[in-house]
Amino acid sequence: MSDSSKYTMVEPPAGYAGEGFFATKLSDVVGLARANSLWPLPFATSCCGIEFMATMASHYDVARFGSERMSFSPRQADMLLVMGTIAKKMAPILRQVYEQMSEPKWVIAVGACASSGGVFDTYSVLQGIDKVIPVDVYVPGCPPRPEQILDGIMKLQEIVKNESVRRRSSDEYKDLLGSYNIK
Ligand code: SF4
């Protein structure tokens, strides 16, 4: 017989519960579903990508967060993980991949290079991917350990859970994309 005390139950979204029914906001349910089924698109160019491979593997097991389903097609992914040094020549490609993802979509900059150019303060390296696409979470480190990548994914889950279903059609969001010249 299983010992239920061994398991931690996830709290349901805030709402009103009674016998035989549970009332909450549609936004909270959508947020909960989205947050626990983020499909990653790994855009890995160098060493940080190796850390992500470890994060995917059995020891760290990103499947615990509902994110084991890799997508190498931008159209079937909603969490873009950018890992590694991004050369300025590659920036338009990264931007194209971001634009090809359908809404809603989120971005994590994994490691110092993706976040700020890292140690490569040089003419050929993009000094942070937020120069070309909006970023939701930055993971520090060179390289970040798998625990830090998981922490970044958990931070993003919190953002996703609390995002209004109307955010993507808001003026504020359009202005954000407009500031990157993305339509
Ligand atoms: S942050 Fe460090 S480990 Fe990650 S890609 Fe850059 S140099 Fe490599």
From TrEMBL:
<feature type="binding site">
    <location>
        <position position="47"/>
    </location>
    <ligand>
        <name>[4Fe-4S] cluster</name>
    </ligand>
</feature>
<keyword id="KW-0472">Membrane</keyword>
<keyword id="KW-0004">4Fe-4S</keyword>
<dbReference type="GO" id="GO:0005506">
    <property type="term" value="F:iron ion binding"/>
</dbReference>
<dbReference type="GO" id="GO:0008137">
    <property type="term" value="F:NADH dehydrogenase (ubiquinone) activity"/>
</dbReference>
<dbReference type="InterPro" id="IPR006137">
    <property type="entry name" value="NADH_UbQ_OxRdtase-like_20kDa"/>
</dbReference>
<feature type="binding site">
    <location>
        <position position="113"/>
    </location>
    <ligand>
        <name>[4Fe-4S] cluster</name>
    </ligand>
</feature>
<keyword id="KW-0479">Metal-binding</keyword>
<dbReference type="GO" id="GO:0015990">
    <property type="term" value="P:electron transport coupled proton transport"/>
</dbReference>
<dbReference type="GO" id="GO:0048038">
    <property type="term" value="F:quinone binding"/>
</dbReference>
<keyword id="KW-0411">Iron-sulfur</keyword>
<comment type="similarity">
    <text>Belongs to the complex I 20 kDa subunit family.</text>
</comment>
<dbReference type="GO" id="GO:0005886">
    <property type="term" value="C:plasma membrane"/>
</dbReference>
<dbReference type="GO" id="GO:0045271">
    <property type="term" value="C:respiratory chain complex I"/>
</dbReference>
<feature type="binding site">
    <location>
        <position position="142"/>
    </location>
    <ligand>
        <name>[4Fe-4S] cluster</name>
    </ligand>
</feature>
<comment type="function">
    <text>NDH-1 shuttles electrons from NADH, via FMN and iron-sulfur (Fe-S) centers, to quinones in the respiratory chain. The immediate electron acceptor for the enzyme in this species is believed to be a menaquinone. Couples the redox reaction to proton translocation (for every two electrons transferred, four hydrogen ions are translocated across the cytoplasmic membrane), and thus conserves the redox energy in a proton gradient.</text>
</comment>
<keyword id="KW-1278">Translocase</keyword>
<keyword id="KW-0520">NAD</keyword>
<keyword id="KW-0560">Oxidoreductase</keyword>
<dbReference type="GO" id="GO:0050136">
    <property type="term" value="F:NADH dehydrogenase (quinone) (non-electrogenic) activity"/>
</dbReference>
<dbReference type="Pfam" id="PF01058">
    <property type="entry name" value="Oxidored_q6"/>
</dbReference>
<keyword id="KW-0813">Transport</keyword>
<dbReference type="GO" id="GO:0051539">
    <property type="term" value="F:4 iron, 4 sulfur cluster binding"/>
</dbReference>
<keyword id="KW-1003">Cell membrane</keyword>
<protein>
    <recommendedName>
        <fullName>NADH-quinone oxidoreductase subunit B</fullName>
        <ecNumber>7.1.1.-</ecNumber>
    </recommendedName>
</protein>
<dbReference type="InterPro" id="IPR006138">
    <property type="entry name" value="NADH_UQ_OxRdtase_20Kd_su"/>
</dbReference>
<feature type="domain" description="NADH:ubiquinone oxidoreductase-like 20kDa subunit">
    <location>
        <begin position="47"/>
        <end position="156"/>
    </location>
</feature>
<keyword id="KW-0408">Iron</keyword>
<feature type="binding site">
    <location>
        <position position="48"/>
    </location>
    <ligand>
        <name>[4Fe-4S] cluster</name>
    </ligand>
</feature>
<dbReference type="GO" id="GO:0009060">
    <property type="term" value="P:aerobic respiration"/>
</dbReference>
<keyword id="KW-0874">Quinone</keyword>
<comment type="subunit">
    <text>NDH-1 is composed of 14 different subunits. Subunits NuoB, C, D, E, F, and G constitute the peripheral sector of the complex.</text>
</comment>
